[in-house]
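Q: Two folds, back to back.
A: First:
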Amino acid sequence: MVTIKKIAEQSGFSQATVSRLLKGDESLSIAADTRQKIIHTALSLGYDRSKIKTTLEKIAVLFWLTEQEELQDVYFRQLRISLEKYAKINNLEIKLITHEDDVLETLQEVAGFIGIGSFTEKETQQFKSICPYGVLLEINPCPELFDTVKPDTDRMTQLAIDLFLTKGYRKIGFIGGAYLNPDTQRAEMDSREVIFRQTLAQRDALDEAFLFTGGNFSVETGYRLAKKMVESLGDDLPEALFVASDTIAVGVLQALNERSIIIPDRLELISINDNEIAKFVAPPLTTFNIDVEEIAKTAIDLLVDQIVHPRAITKTVLLGAELIERKSFTQA
């Protein structure tokens, strides 16, 4: 058990000072470097973070999405809220930064950061030169510089295909958005589409006619692509459809419902995210549940680990997902 006495001995400060600091005594006046040394010593010895009642560190969350993009994808809004929640639980003071803020100046004032969105390689290298500790979520252009946390959407894609094939489907379609490369400002194939193509090609079941992609991850994109699919294929629709996100799937359902194409009677559908809306659309979506809270918790844990135990190597954490079975697809 890590005691106040042991922390005091290791840090070189009195037990009274250590105790008052860890208990969050606001009347205690100590230098910033003294405060940091005591807290880092406590954490490095394995002291329970939940027992520390003072702010551990100040961190930044770089939210590299426009307000419109955030509103279009509930996932990112939930992620931001979860990060704020777990920062508070860990006694971390958090500052939200967007494109419009003076990012480089802010990074000089924090112990580390968590990045959400699309960053260029140049931006990432600039961040490293100012703030050595960081975690990027989803997309990391320089994984050798910062830790990465992301859902394993590649594996989810493979599992969806396996579920379709197990039910005997051979006409399997895909609807998804594109990845906008921030370095080139060009749309590129999203990793879910890459894995979808590779996996079905290996199983000799890939049909290019059943793939419809392009645009951002929005309801409008899903509606447009599903409408295009029906117009181009007519009655020769896929038997099963994998959709890259619930947000896109909502638009897909709207387009299919308008044309009286009944799911799951005419075709079955699986998507990714398990947003709250997935329960309430018609039919309710069968979707892979990405645990947003676990992503946020893992990111916070990794960042604190870097700050307390600096390391030369970076880590990449892939989080799995649970299939939430509703009416758009059933395994039976």
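A: Second:
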Amino acid sequence: MDDSDEALMARVARGDQPAFRALARRHLPAMVGLARRVLGNTADAEDVAQEAMLRVWTHAPRWQPVAAFKTWLTRIVVNLCLDRKRRAAWVDLEEAGDLVDRTPDAVERMETNERERQLQSAIEKLPDRQRAAIVLTYSEGMSNAQVADILDTSVSAVETLLIRGKQNLRRALGGLIDEEG
């Protein structure tokens, strides 16, 4: 009987538990070591290696021997380690401190709404082509080239319209535009 990793995986794909145990005995210690070196944490390393072996079991029917089994398993372990390292570390509740509510309070919302109303009113008072250039660029997120096509003009003309429009808005708003960015 062929005891290569690939032959064992073919048997695992058919639900052969002894073949899975043979693969686990063969590779689990090395995968724990790999995970420990990548993570630097023994408890997490064992969890990662076990999760990788669980994926071997669940994905066995779809596994294709394109690469060597050990290469595939190593890729799974490394990806799981990298995923773990990307996740934020858990902090004990006592160490976490108070939660900060980042939602704006009523006063902030009122101030924001008032600034937006003033800005919209000032935009409405701009000359038509300046207003169109400002709205298409900043509200609609279009490039200067797209705006130039829409307004049937050149990119440099759009840039001029934007400069003049922003100058007019700064004058109308008395510094509000500089506060906002």
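Q: And?
A: The chain has a mean pLDDT of 85.
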